[in-house]
Please model this.
Amino acid sequence: MATAFKVPSSPKPSETVGFVRNAWYVAAWSTEIEDGILGRMILHTPIALFRQQDGQIAALLDICPHKFAPLSLGKRVGDGVQCGYHGLEFDAGGRCVRNPQGNQKIPPGSQVATFPVVERHGAIWIWPGEPALADVQAIPDFGFFSDPAWKAIYGLGHVEGNYKLSIDNLMDLGHGLFLHKASAGDFGDARCEIEVGQEGEKVWDRRLYPSLDMPEALAARFDVPAGAPMDVVADIEWLPAGLIQNLIAMCPPGKARVEGNMTRGMHCLTPETETSTHYFFANVRNFLLNDPRIDEGLRRWQKDALQDEDSMMVSAVERNTEAAVRLGVQPIYLSTDNAGARVRRVLETLVRRDNC
Amino acid sequence: MATAFKVPSSPKPSETVGFVRNAWYVAAWSTEIEDGILGRMILHTPIALFRQQDGQIAALLDICPHKFAPLSLGKRVGDGVQCGYHGLEFDAGGRCVRNPQGNQKIPPGSQVATFPVVERHGAIWIWPGEPALADVQAIPDFGFFSDPAWKAIYGLGHVEGNYKLSIDNLMDLGHGLFLHKASAGDFGDARCEIEVGQEGEKVWDRRLYPSLDMPEALAARFDVPAGAPMDVVADIEWLPAGLIQNLIAMCPPGKARVEGNMTRGMHCLTPETETSTHYFFANVRNFLLNDPRIDEGLRRWQKDALQDEDSMMVSAVERNTEAAVRLGVQPIYLSTDNAGARVRRVLETLVRRDNC
Amino acid sequence: MATAFKVPSSPKPSETVGFVRNAWYVAAWSTEIEDGILGRMILHTPIALFRQQDGQIAALLDICPHKFAPLSLGKRVGDGVQCGYHGLEFDAGGRCVRNPQGNQKIPPGSQVATFPVVERHGAIWIWPGEPALADVQAIPDFGFFSDPAWKAIYGLGHVEGNYKLSIDNLMDLGHGLFLHKASAGDFGDARCEIEVGQEGEKVWDRRLYPSLDMPEALAARFDVPAGAPMDVVADIEWLPAGLIQNLIAMCPPGKARVEGNMTRGMHCLTPETETSTHYFFANVRNFLLNDPRIDEGLRRWQKDALQDEDSMMVSAVERNTEAAVRLGVQPIYLSTDNAGARVRRVLETLVRRDNC
Model:
C-alpha cells in the first residue's frame, strides 16, 4: 500500500561547510552609499562601508574595538568614521586617529580590520579574504552596465537560504518553464538545445529554444511581435563565488544565434550568513532605452520572477533541506543539473582551499 | 522568612522523547483538501496531501528528491503531482512518472515515500509508522459525525505545546471549574462522582455532577431551562496516540445517566513538532439541529474554551516547563490526574516500542 | 592595502557566566502591583508578585507544582493565590492550603518556593539568593523619592542585552557627549575633571564640566538661562548588582560643587535572562515641582536618552558581541572606563561567590 518510511538514526549532510573567502563579492550597489555609513553582514562578518571625501569607498569591520558598538551607528568625519558611542575616530585604513575621552591617548591595539574594496559597474566589490591576493582584474567584466547602448535597472533582494541554492536555481535554466510559468509565459515543456561548458573556474549553460510562440506579456517586455515564433537564446555563466551573468535574446528564426532584442543580467549572490543571502540583480537591454514601459516590465520581472518565484522557492528548499537531511532523503540528479553540478564541484574545492 | 531557593546543577527531564509512529493521526479535515495540495508538518515530517481524480486521498513526503522543493508548492496533474520547481511528476504511489527536463529519463532513486491514508468521519487519517501495520479498523468510531440525528461543527487550532500537555488538559476534567469559569459558568467547586477506567490501551474518565444550577449562558447553549437544577454528565475517553472523544449530557435529575440534550466532541491531537500540535476539534449535538444560535454557541465554545483557555494554558505550561525542569521543580500528583497518568503510562510504552 | 583579516579558530569569551544571586533587585515599581498577580522573569526565574490584604508584597516562584502552570495566570484569594488551571491555593508563604480537586487532600511536596521581598522608595525589591542573607538595610537609600522637596517621574524599559552592558553604559559618563548629542545638546568634546573612586563594593565616577554654554533644550529642562555658562556636575554611583544612582546639577560658576537646580536618577538594572534586562529608571528634581513642562521634559529624556539612545546602543553592542568574540576582536581600554572596570571586577567576584 505505501512505501515503508523509516526515520534514519544519524543522517549526515554531505558538504564542506564554510565560505569561499578569497573571492570578490558585491557588498552594495553604488547608489546605496552616499554620505552615511552602511552596515551590512557579509560572509557572517559585519562590515561598515562609507565613502571618503574623494568618493573612494572604505570597508571596515563594523565593530569598534572599545565596546564593540557598530561603527555604522556613528558618522563620517573627514575621510574616516566617528563611533557614535564614545567618539573614537578611525581613518579609512582602520587606524584610530582620535580619542576624545579622558587622557585622549590612542590606546594600543585599536586598529580596526579593513577589507579590499573597489567600485565598478555600479557596484561596490569587497574581498573578504587575504588582502595580498585581491586582484581587481578578477572582477568579471560587466561593461555593458556603463555602455550607453544599454539601459540598466537595478534591484536588491534578500533570500532566506544559502547562496549555493540560489546558484543552483540560476545555473539550471530548466526551472524556467515551470517556476516562471506565471511571470514568463506558458511554453509547455518546450525542448531546447543545451550546451554546458567549463573553462578553468568559469562554468556556463547555453540554451536555444527554436521557434517559440511569443505570449503577449513576454513579447511586450522584449518589444517583439506577440504570437509570432522566435528563436530564444538563454545563456548563463558563473564565476566564483557568487557572480553570474546571463543573456536572453529574441532572435528572428533562422538568423544568427545572438541577435535582435536582448537583455543581459547581473546576478551577484553574496552570503549574509550560512542560511541567508544578499541578491544583487540588475538587467540591461539594448532596445527602447527611453521607454518607461520597458523599465516597468523589467522591474516587474525582477519582483515576480527573481523574488516572488526564485527566492521564494530557494527559501522553501532551505527550510525543507533540514527535514530532507534529517529524514535521509537521497537527492537525485537530472541532466539539467550539469552546469550546477560543475559549479558545486568548483565551490567545494575553493571552500576547502579557504578553510583549511 | 522565605524558603531557600537553590538552582540545581543538572536537572533532568524524566520522559522518553519521541513520537508514537504506529498510530492513526488526523492529518486534515476533509474540507481542507479540494483541488490543491496541502502541505502540513506531522510528527516533524513534512507531508503533501491531495486527492486523486476519484476523490481518494494520497499522502507523500513533501520533499521532491531532486532539489528538496516542497511538492505542495506544485500542482495536481492527473492522479499525481507535478513539482513546481522543475516539473518532475509523481503518481499517488510516489513513483516518478515523468521528467520533462533534458534527456527526459526517469532518474534512479526517484521514489518518494508515501504514507497510508484514509478518509473517515469528515477527517483525513494518516499512519506515519510501518505501513504493514496500518489497520483501518483501528480508527475509533466517530460514527455520530455522519449520523443525521446529530449536527456537527468543525474547527482547527494550533497549540504551541507538546501534544501530551493537551492530552493532560483534556483527560483531567477537573480543570473545567477553574479554567473555564468564564466560558462555562461559575459552579464554585461543585463535587462530582468520578469513575476512571482502562481497557487495553483505552483510558476513560467519567464524571457526574448531580443537581447543578444551570447558569444562563450554558443553559442557552444546551437549550435547557436556566436556573433549574440538572445532572451533568461529563465523560471523556482516550485512544492512542492523540484521539479523544467526549460527551456532555444535561440530564433531568433522577433520570437515566445519559439522557437529554447532549454534545459529543472529537478532539484529535496531532503532533506537528515536539513543541507544537495541530488540534482538530469538532462537536455534534442531538438537539435543535437547525438552530443557528446553537451553531454559534458551539463555535464560541470552541474559540473561548478550547483555544483561548485550554490551548493558551497548554502553551503557558509548555513555556514554563523549561524553567520548571531547569529549576528542579518536582511535579505533584492529584487524584484528578488518574486518567491522565494512565494515558501517560500507555504513551511511554508505545513511544519506547516505536523508537527502539 | 588592507589589514589581513583572519577568522580565528576557537574564540573564547573571557567572563564568568552567571548571576549575582545574593543581592537586592528591583522586581517592579510599586504602582505595577495592585489587585492582580504580576508574572515577571527575573534572573531567568519566573516570579509571581502580589499584594496580601494588608498591602504587603509576596513573591512566589511562578510555577504551580501540579502541572507547572504560571500562578500569575490565576487570581488572588485572601492572602494567597489560586492557580487558574485546577484551583490549587497557595498562601503568601508558598504553602498549598487548599486542593479543590478529587479527594481534596493537600499533596505532599506541594510547597512553592518564595523569595524575600520588600517595598521601599516606590519599588518592590526582591532577593533571589539565600533568604538568610537578605538584609533590608543593604537596599541603597533612595530617600529623596519619598521626600516632598523632590518630585519623581518613573519609567520602565526593556533592554535586549546583558545587564552588565547597561552598567558599562551608565558608569562611563564619557558616552554622553556623543551618544546623547541629539537629546542633551552638542558640547563638542568638552573637557571635564573626573574623580573615580571605590569604597568596599561601592564604585563612583564624578565629573565636573566647568562653564558649559547651555543649549536651549537642556536649559529649559533644568530651568536655567539658555546661553549662559554653567558648571555642570555629573555624578554616578553603583552598588551590586545593578543599582545605580546619579546626580546632575547645574551650578552657577564659581559656587559650591553641588548647588542649584538638579535631578537625581535611580537606574535599577534587573537581569531578565543572560541577554535581556528590565531597566527601572526614575528621576527626581528639586525645582518647579508643579510644572508639567518639566515633567514632560524628564519623560522625553527618559524615552530619548535612556531608551532610544542608551538601550538601543546596548542592544546593538549585545548583537555585535557575538561577532566580535567569534572573530577574535580584542577589546581596548580607555581611561573613561575606569569606573566601569572596577564594577566589572566586583561583579566577577560576586558571580564567582554565588555560582561556586
Remarks:
- Chain A has a mean pLDDT of 93.
- Residues 292-326 of chain A form the longest helix (35 residues).
